[in-house]
Amino acid sequence: MRAPAAKRGRPARPQTVFVRLSDRVALGYANGRIIAQFEDGYEVSLGAFSAAATQPASALRTGLPLAALGARAKTAAEIDRLVRQLAAMGLVEYPVRRSPTKDEIVIEPQMAGYWPQAAPLRNADVLALSRFAYLRRRGDDMVLESPRAAALFRIRDHKITAALARLATPQPVGELRKRGPAIALLALLVDCGILFKLEGDASLRAAEGDRELVLWDFHDLLFHARSTPGRHANPLGGLYPYAGVTPAPPAVRRRWPGKKIDLRELLRAPAQASPAARLLHERHSTRSFDDHRPITLAELAQFLDTTAHVVSTWQSQVDLGDARPTVAYATRPYPSAGAAYELELYLAVEKCDGLARGFYHYDAGGHALVPIGVGTQELAALLTEARLSMDAPAAPQIVITIAARFGRVSWKYSSLAYALILKNVGVLIQTLYLMATDMGLGGCAIGSTNIDLFAKMTGIEFHIEGPVGQFALGRGTRSAASD
Asked: Fewest beta carbons less than 10 Å away: which of 130, 286, 310, 463?
């Protein structure tokens, strides 16, 4: 007898990408305009829209098919304009569904302006999971993300999670069409850099990205991207997230038990303190600057010369057994791990007597300022972010962005490269503080720097050279001392 033919199951419905309004915002309609309304009562007008657009706009709460936004109808064009405005503000997310109501995946933008794009895939392409990608639990979902990606993927189907994990071993697209995750999902992940195409005979590490990316360890790139604004959508700053969970730790640690040795009676009298000691005690942060008497170009030249100018350079060979590469070194006024001196200074100038408003790179070797052409909006955004981070009444006269040439340190050091860079930043910031104090100027360290904004202003990829600190500089007002 002939065996009965196997029954063919109904083919699975294709995955469809929807766009949905974030829970953080609601839409209102008044006087012919659609308004974004936030929980704290803040409102933003999104422009004029016809009354016919209000019904599909309200459907954004549950989700609209992304493909439908490209229709030629007038209302569809209006909704497309609305959604793109919301996307530019980071106020939408993108559910991926096979049915109208059940989310299999939710794509959450981590950078304003993200828009889902499907990378072209051929059957012969070989895909692999990025070494920077990782899965973690958030609530009841598994989250797949990467510091390189402009969006994260909240996965609600454990079968998809298991299928993606198999891509730790490179897989041909042709095989994945038969038994892997949906090709539409893979194309979205390739576009985000969570998956990448393996080409040639290079190792997995060398095949992903450029030669600068090869120098990064997983934990270093993750910390760089997640500990400063620009490449994630997590809450950031002094938000006191644990105020209702645990008391604030004390400012001064409780001393260890045992008999103490009191050092106070051994101190010199204040009048006998050395100039360096007095300088350390006089150091303070300045958040208010005297715009009627801005810092001068001559003062800025002296400040940069005594804090960051290259004093000398030399070369040395490193004995690595089979190889003896020649490494160049430099000396500057502050110490640096391994004499790497990877830190670069970029100056956003608001007011400086003798120097035009603009954005400049400090050429430490030639002791010169080189202007960089940037848009007025980008310059204003950098100065405004600095003002808000400092909680200052006005923009600083000069904002110095401390950027790192990451490969300069990671070429030599493993596992601690980024930690060394941050230590170097701390040393440089103290140097800037002390020299500002010595010159009678005001300075203030700034805790956050937007790495995406810097990349747009310089045209440099965030993993090649990027900001790791900021310092405000200018002539302080007479009552500007704070800490």
From this structure: 310
DSSP code, position 293: S
Spatial CA neighbour of 445 closest among 380, 378, 396: 396
Question: Comparing C-alpha atoms, which of 142, 151, 82, 148 is closest to residue 115?
Answer: 151
Smallest CA-to-CA distance from 444 within 369, 378, 394 is with 394
Question: Which tokens sit at 197?
Answer: 């195409």
pLDDT tens sequence across 268-314: 887 778 899 889 999 999 999 999 999 999 999 999 999 999 999 99
Q: What is the pLDDT of residues 37-76, one digit of tens each?
A: 998 889 999 999 998 888 888 889 999 999 888 766 778 8
Mean residue pLDDT across the chain: 92
Q: Is the separation of the CB atoms in 342 and 402 below 8 Å?
A: no
Whether residue 106 has pLDDT greater than 80:
yes
* Amino acid, res. 214: V
Which residue type sits at 33? Answer: R
| b/e code 57-90 from CB counts within 10 Å (16+ = b) | beebeebbebeebeeeeebbebbbebbebbbeeb
What integer pLDDT is reported at residue 389 of this predicted model? 94
Structure tokens at 441: 């100027």
Q: Provide the token pair at 145.
A: 């993300």
Q: Is 331 helix (H, G, I), strand (E, B) or coil?
A: strand
What is the mean predicted confidence (pLDDT) over 102-124? 94
Nearest to 465 by CA among 157, 215, 171, 142: 215
User: For residue 103, what are the contacts with CB-CB under 8 A and spacing of at least 6?
Assistant: 95, 96, 97, 156
Given a contact cutoff of 8 angstroms between Cβ atoms, the answer to whether 424 and 342 are in contact is yes
Determine contact, residues 18/64, Cβ cutoff 8 Å: yes
**Which phi-psi region, left, alpha or beta, contains residue 41 (left: φ > 0; alpha: ψ -120 to 50)?**
left
| 386 DSSP β-pair partners | none
Between CA 79 and CA 84 the distance in angstroms is 8
Residue 182's contacts (CB-CB under 8 Å, 6 or more residues apart) are: 14, 15
